[in-house]
């Protein structure tokens, strides 16, 4: 099955004021390795009190599994249609 693209939005108070190095450390978790090839991180962005992560995944279930392991639950998961 081909991987589909998703945007994961998370509300994290003061995310925009967190030092770049702290964000890098948070992103360096081994969560993706636990889930195997069913999910791949592409990029992340910080805007105000939110982070936006772009991922390729088999389906939304894998995205939710990632969220259960990660410290920050998603506010919204949106599949990119094109």
Layout of secondary structure:
Elements: E1 4-11, H1 20-27, H2 31-35, E2 39-47, E3 50-57, H3 60-69, E4 76-79
Antiparallel strand pairs: 1-3, 1-4, 2-3
Summed up, what is this model?
Helix content is 28%, strand content 35%. Strand 2 and strand 3 form a beta hairpin.
Description:
The chain is α+β, with helices and mostly antiparallel strands. The protein has a single domain, classed as 2-Layer Sandwich (Alpha-Beta Plaits), CATH 3.30.70.3090. The protein is built from 3 helices and 4 strands. The chain has a 4-stranded antiparallel sheet with strand order 2-3-1-4. A hairpin with a 2-residue loop joins β2 and β3. It is globular. The two termini are about 15 Å apart.
Shape: globular
Number of discrete domains: 1
Rg result: 12 Å
Going across the biggest sheet, name each strand in turn. 2-3-1-4
Identify the CATH class: Alpha Beta
Main attributes of the structure:
82 residues; alpha+beta; Alpha-Beta Plaits; four-stranded antiparallel sheet; 3 helices
């Amino acid at each position: 099955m081909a991987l589909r693209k998703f945007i994961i939005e998370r509300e994290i108070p003061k995310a925009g004021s967190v030092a770049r190095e702290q964000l890098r450390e948070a992103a360096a978790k081994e969560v993706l390795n636990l889930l195997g090839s069913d999910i791949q991180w592409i990029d992340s962005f910080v805007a105000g009190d939110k982070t936006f992560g772009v991922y390729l995944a088999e389906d939304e279930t894998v995205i939710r599994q990632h969220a259960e392991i990660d410290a920050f639950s998603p506010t919204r998961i949106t599949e990119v249609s094109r």
